[in-house]
Amino acid sequence: MTTAGRPPSVPRHVAIIMDGNNRWARKRFLPGVAGHKAGVDAVRAVIEVCAEEGVEVLTLFAFSSENWNRPADEVGALMDLFLSALRREVRKLAENDICLRIVGDRSRFSPELQKAMAEAEALTADSSRLTLVVAANYGGQWDITQAARRLAIEAQAGRLDAAAIDEQDFQERLCTAEWPLPDLCIRTGGERRVSNFLLWQIAYAELYFSDLYWPDFKHEALRAAFDDFAKRQRRFGKTSEQVAAES
Question: Which of 84, 132, 140, 209 gives the lowest tally of CB atoms within 10 Å of its CB?
């Protein structure tokens, strides 16, 4: 077991692309926002499993930088849902010792939503059982660009030797720098792509694709993903024999 009580077969950091809300709703002849509302139950379910299993970090892709291109009424409904979920769920997170952090470019969100984000983070700041990272107005290319910009500014100011910049320096400027890299990246909804999510961070993550739409991806579905993860051998460029000898 790890110091946190997590067996080696359970990932430290799980990242999830929550896909299929709209298709779930269309299948039931409901408006798209109904799928997003139903997806909140799946969020609760995966948080419960991760907390029970000893996962340290759970990152959820809630709203990408490309999602602004969706119909205006859908975007508006998503913002309303995000705001209401923050206000409704944050105390439950705090009561269950779950720390909420939000990553992404917040500047495009309304002042009211930005204020709610900050208040939710502050209320759960001392929680330590699980860190829930919500990626909102986030894109992997944006994250890489802002990290590169920070390095360039530091080098230009003489605080950093540009010729000495390495991968670790870059990784420390990403918005996820304080957490371990994802071990397992899950995408629901039947698609087989990463859609600009944590592009640097998932370089060596195990990928798991589920045909379930997000509202249907709950306790047993996540445990099935963990079971699949436990059967994999993570080599990080080494041979199977080398990994076996080290274990």
Answer: 84
pLDDT tens digit sequence for 151-171: 999 999 999 999 999 999 999
pLDDT value of residue 11: 97
In this model, does residue 2 exceed pLDDT 50? no
Q: How many of the other CB atoms lie within 10 Å of CB of 1?
A: 9
Cα first-last separation, the chain: 14
The β-bridge relationship of strands 130-138 and 184-187 is unpaired
Q: What pLDDT, on the 0 to 100 scale, is given for residue 29?
A: 97
Contact 87, 161 (CB under 8 A): no
- Distance between CA atoms of 198 and 240, rounded to whole angstroms? 27
- Distance CA(138)–CA(64), nearest Å, equals 5
Question: What is the pLDDT at residue 243?
Answer: 73
Looking only at the bridges linking them, the beta strands covering 57-64 and 98-103 are unpaired
Question: Does the annotation mark 67 as catalytic?
Answer: yes
Residue 22 among the catalytic residues? no
Of 21, 67, 73, 96, which is the active-site residue? 67
Considering Cα of 18, then 119, then 44, then 82, what sign does the dihedral take?
A: negative
Distance from C-alpha of 216 to C-alpha of 55, rounded to nearest angstrom = 21
Distances (CA, A) of 16 to 1, 83, 133, 168, 245: 24, 21, 10, 24, 32
Catalytic residue among 19, 22, 137, 143: 19
From CA 43, how far away is CA 227, in angstroms rounded?
19
Q: What's the predicted TM-score (pTM) here?
A: 0.93
Look-up of token digits 């700041």: 125
